[in-house]
Amino acid sequence: MKSTLLITLFHLFCISLYAQQTIRGTITEADTNEGLPGASVYLSDNPQVGTTTNANGAFQLQIPANTSSSVLVVSFTGYTTQRVPLENTKENYTIVLSEDVNLLNEVMVISGTLKEVSKSDSPVPIEVYTPTFFMKNPAPSLFESLTNVNGVRPQLNCNVCNTGDIHINGLEGPYTMILIDGMPIVSGLSTVYGLTGIPSSLIDRVEIVKGPASTLYGSEAVGGLVNVITKRPNTADNISFDQFATSWGEFNTDIGLRYNLGAKAQSLTGINYFNYQNPMDNNDDGFTDITLANRISLFNKINFVRKDHRLFTLAGRLNYEDRWGGDMRWTRTFRGGDSIYGESIYTKRWEVLGAYELPVKEKIVFRFSANGHNHNSFYGNTSYNADQNISFGQLTWNKVLGAHDLLVGGALRYTWYDDNTPATASIGGGTNNPSAVWLPGGFIQDEITISKQSKVLLGARYDYNSIHGNIFTPRLNYKWTSKNKKDILRLSAGNGYRVANVFTEDHAALTGARDVVFLEDLKPETSWNTNINYVKKIVISGGFIGFDATAFYTYFDNKIIPDYLTNDNQIIYTNLNGHAVSEGVSLNIDFNFTNGLKIIAGGTRMNVFTVENDENGIEIKSQQLLTEKYAAVWSISYPITKNLVVDYTGNLYGPMRLPVLGKLDPRPDTSPVWSIQNIQLTQQLNDRWSIYGGVKNLLNYTPPSNSIARSRDPFDKEVSFDANGNALPTPNNPYALTFDPNYVFAPNQGIRVFAGVRYSFIK
User: Fold this and answer.
1) Among the listed residues 398, 231, 239, the one whose alpha carbon sits nearest the alpha carbon of residue 315
2) Which residues pair with 243 in a beta bridge?
3) If you ran DSSP here, which 8-state letter would residue 120 be given?
4) Who has the most CB within 10 Å: 99, 412, 554, 667?
5) Is 742's pLDDT higher than 50?
6) Would you give the distance in Å from CA 369 to the centre of its chain?
């Protein structure tokens, strides 16, 4: 009996062996031919039969017999999945995986070289942010959306009207150029007021370059640039809709529509509407915590179908905004009066931009833009009315000659500006004398491919400013890429310049809270910048990790720094008698795991200061006002279920030097460490509808309630002054303060709940 059982078991064992087949193989990487450890290998029709590769990328798999019709699936995060049909007699397989550039966040960019190239191929370091990133913390404007970008800080410039600008690596807003589709649309006067109203439904991505880009873009791109790339009509949703509201009474609506205009044109229309009409004074200073606003923006973009796929696109935007902030008792009947204080601003704006590729054999493209900005405002009883028109045209020729990728271009910019300030007043009064500035220029860049791993970019630009004369800006970039494309090193050096117009750039010069004093004719600012950028991609079995580290240094000559401290009642403008420096390091880390967890985190440590010679020639070093010493941002996303995602976003800012009003001012001259944090849940209902909601400013952080100096006496009716215009201490003004809304480092808006709905439809 026992022998019969043993014989039976032996036969079953032999049948089992015969019924299985052993296959072996190696999974290698296409670029390096090295083995990939931790790759998944399994049968398509029976995923239970599977294994992972060892440290050398090798695998061994026992599969049932007669499975020659099965398919072997090989996958590895960051690489394109391979499906290999099994063969009856084959037992050894070599399978090559190639990088999936989409999984590694590889996108096309244009901001660094004015040509569309992959992000990793660009010699200029560029950061790219997609609508998915901004949806993690929805906001009614691009200005607010940038709060979670490392090294970029939206700075509020006024506690009353809440206007602001974008700081990059600690440099003030006038040093940042804002582009739409590569055209300098948001500049000059609208640098302060034009960052809102860009419909988010039309944004394809936002490209950010840190450091001077004057070689390609001219003045204003000293600190860096923010390039808003709008969607192409042929790739956008047919219909998109996004609306949300907050517990403070804010309502924001974004609508996108795509449609054909005949057989040879496709159109994309975007509408943004924002409304907030609920005055709140939680800090009990008698003033609105945030401004009330009613804003509508219309954007339309048309792509024309042409022979040989040549480019022709035309776009336009109309923007209207009515905003006010101030005393809680203010109504329009008090506009311009001196009894109840309010800051009321009406802005009307139009923009046209486009690109046309010439019908010739060579790659020659003409890009153009024009915009007009009308500004009608009162800051208390101080009127500021201004009109600005800017026209811009640029012709580029791109030619590849062996290892040289040449780009040659010519540009012409015309800026016309008129207002009711001394900036455009005629000598002796009478008719105004508007400012008209012509800025023709030309540039050339040569991207030289030294080898498969190395590139050099040489560039130079010459501009002639009709007021300031000749301006020359060179630059040099070098990029090295490792053989496996996991490491990228970039070295950059360049020169930048900026021609300043105080009244179009500095909100404090407009409010009337202080007198504006010019000690001399302001000269163009110049700067030299160097930075080192290192990018590292690490692929692991459970996902991939990306590191992006940068060290930067910028040296300024002729820097224009508003002096708030010499005289409490004045803003004094002059070119710095010395130099200024912005230096620091930044690090971005991007984690993507196969379980759906995504973490984007970054930090910047910076030192921004001026060195000025006093009347005795002694150098005096001082930190720049309203510039944090360090900052951190983060965005963490995790899918709780297949269709429910939680997003936790936030930022943290270190101490800043603040503009106090003299030695008696009781307010701290340095800000505390502060943080704004948010959480959001998004539920995908189906392939078209989703709902979302959450809490903004979880910590309910707001700046001190006395941020507005003497908010109870905004017209300084009870302030006594000495012969030099300085406030004197009196019994009802013991700290010798004047009304001043410029002591602002953080938003006044506290914790609030928000909820919204999104819809998208593609035929």
Assistant:
1) 231
2) 253, 757
3) G
4) 554
5) yes
6) 21
Contact 134, 146 (CB under 8 A): no
Neighbours of 587 (CB within 10 A): 18
What is the reported pLDDT for 480? 97
How far are the Cα atoms of 60, 140, 192, 281, 461 from residue 465, in angstroms, in the given order? Answer: 71, 37, 23, 47, 13
pLDDT tens by residue, 277-336: 999 999 999 999 999 999 999 999 999 999 888 999 999 999 999 999 999 999 999 999
Supply the pLDDT for residue 166: 87
User: Which fold, 108-761?
Assistant: Maltoporin; Chain A (2.40.170)
Strand partners, 621: 611
Query: Hey, how many other C-beta atoms are within 10 angstroms of the C-beta on 104?
Result: 21
On whether the CB atoms of residues 668 and 675 are closer than 8 A, the answer is no
Which residue matches tokens 């300098």?
184
Q: What is the 3-state secondary structure (H, E, C) of 528-579?
A: EEEEEEEEEEEEECCEEEEEEEEEEEEEEECCECCECCCCCCEEEECECCEE
CB-CB contact of 720 with 726 (8 Å): no
From 438, 361, 442, 353, select the one nearest 396 (Cα to Cα).
442
Residue 204 to residue 270: CA distance in whole angstroms: 13
9 three-class SS: helix
Contacts of residues 729-732 at CB distance under 8 Å and 24 or more positions apart, as own/partner, are 729/664
Assigned architecture for domain 2-97: Sandwich (2.60)
Residues 252 and 273: their CA atoms lie apart, in Å, by 6
- Calculate the CA 92 to chain-centre distance: 50
Indicate the pairing of strand 127-129 with strand 117-118: unpaired
Backbone angles phi, psi at 433, to 5 degrees: -120, 85
Share of the chain above pLDDT 70, in %: 87
Closest CA to 122 of 474, 549, 488: 488
Cα 631 to Cα 167: distance, rounded to the nearest angstrom? 12
CA distance 183 to 199: 17
How far apart (Å, rounded) are the C-alpha atoms in residues 154 and 163?
Answer: 10
Greatest pairwise CA separation for the chain in angstroms:
127
Radius of gyration of the chain (CA): 30
pLDDT tops 80 at residue 735: yes
Strand-pair category, 20-29 with 92-97: parallel
Q: Output the six-digit token pair for 624.
A: 């720049």
For residue 75, give the amino acid letter. Answer: S
How many Cα atoms are found within 13 Å in the side-chain-facing hemisphere of 627? 22
What's the pLDDT tens digit per position in 249-267?
999 999 999 999 988 999 9
Q: Which amino acid is it at 640?
A: I
Name the residue among 342, 286, 421 with its Cα closest to residue 161.
342
pLDDT in tens, 622-637: 898 899 999 999 999 9
> How far from 589 is each of 145, 634, 678, CA to CA, in Å?
19, 9, 20
Q: What is the torsion angle, in degrees rounded to the nearest 10, for the CA atoms of residue 116, residue 122, residue 124 and residue 130?
A: 60
The distance of Cα 610 from the centroid of its chain, to the nearest Å, equals 26
Can you read off the two tokens belonging to residue 403? 């290892």
The domain spans of the chain are 2-97, 108-761
The residue whose two tokens read 């776009």 is 315
**What CA–CA distances, in Å, run from 399 to 96, 364, 445, 446?**
35, 9, 11, 10
Residue 233 has pLDDT above 50, yes or no: yes
Closest CA to 190 of 163, 167, 169: 163
Three-state DSSP class for residue 266: strand
Tally of residues, the chain: 763
Contacts of 466 (CB under 8 A, 6+ apart): 436, 437, 438, 439
Report which residue type is found at 650. Answer: G
Distance CA 243, CA 253 (A): 4
Distances (CA, A) of 33 to 13, 52, 92, 452, 481: 39, 18, 17, 17, 17
pTM exceeding 0.90: no
Torsion angle (degrees, nearest 10) of CA 147, 229, 366, 497: 10
Six token digits for residue 763: 């035929």
